[in-house]
Amino acid sequence: IGAGSTTSADFAALIEQQTMTSEFIDLLRPETILGKLSPRAVPSNIRIPKATTGTSAFWIGEGKAAPLTNAAYGDMDIGEHKIGAIAVFTEELLRRAEPAAEALVRDDLIATISQSIDLAFIDPTNAGVASVKPAAITNGIDDDEASGTNAAAVRADVATAYKKFIVANHPLASGVWIMHPSIALSLSMMQNAMGVKEFPGMSMNGGTLEGLPVVTSTNVPGNAVNGYHMVLAVQNDILVAEGGLVIDASREASLEFETAPTLDAKAPTPAQLVSLWQTGSVAIKAVRGITWTRRRPTAVAVVTGAKYQ
């Protein structure tokens, strides 16, 4: 991966004389899902005991023996994961760019990390990688296909998800819907035969659906053809451990210029390195520590193929 330079096509727009700072258009990325939720904050690298089965109580007849009961307990681990990237550009670009290339690259790294976190958090195909990446809260969930496209189908699908939480004794008060803005828009525009909104609490930016808040993100899986996912999550049962965001810059480091670098501090192998000092380059690294897990497997319900109209 070559460093950005004054002659690089990807960075040329930053140094053209007619380019005005006020006219520079940032890449738009959706707001983070986690930033809109209120999950339970926990420390990293801890082990939490949990009950796998509970005790039971019995009615006892006169003179009869009281039945025995017991509970079973297990552990769940909250590990530590981090996500990040490094961007490199030449000192000439740093001096001549307008707007400032360093700030632009820094902000872009922060935005792309936030988007990558959202995708990992909500995409059910993300099964996680041990010691590298946490699995999505939707991974391994027994989902339900949307029952139709009209308002009656919406209510039926919502009821199915709510009943799952009720059976599992989850507090619905901390539930939240996560959906694509296009689904939220469709729900907000549904009207009955009298012209009254079917779901008056909805807008394309979220709102409330059948008593629970809604947050929206374009990172929610799906498409207009096959339908989108709708995720119902118990916020109190989503455990999130954050390690903060660290941004570093260096002119002296030596880097392996690859999108899939082979360097490994625990098992080092030879690799070609490029000196930033010798080549007159600057590197910015952004790393955010974050991990999550469901406290109980039943803390999330998923409706797939939603194409409400």
Which bin fits the share of residues in helices? 10-25%
Give the biggest sheet.
Answer: 8 strands, mixed
Number of strands: 16
Shape: flat
List the helices and strands and how they pair.
Blueprint: E1 40-41, E2 46-53, E3 72-78, E4 82-90, H1 91-96, H2 101-122, E5 144-145, H3 151-167, E6 175-179, H4 181-189, E7 202-203, E8 206-209, E9 212-216, E10 222-223, E11 227-234, E12 238-250, E13 254-255, E14 274-275, H5 276-279, E15 281-294, E16 300-306
Structure, described:
- The chain is α+β, with helices and mostly antiparallel strands and 309 residues long.
- The protein has helices at residues 91-96, 101-122, 151-167, 181-189, 276-279; strands at residues 40-41, 46-53, 72-78, 82-90, 144-145, 175-179, 202-203, 206-209, 212-216, 222-223, 227-234, 238-250, 254-255, 274-275, 281-294, 300-306.
- Strands 5, 6, 7, 8, 9, 10, 11 and 16 form an eight-stranded mixed β-sheet that branches. Strands 1-12-15-4 form a four-stranded mixed β-sheet. Strands 2-3 form a two-stranded antiparallel ribbon.
- The radius of gyration is 25 Å and the shape is flat.
- Mean pLDDT is 84; it is low at 19-28.
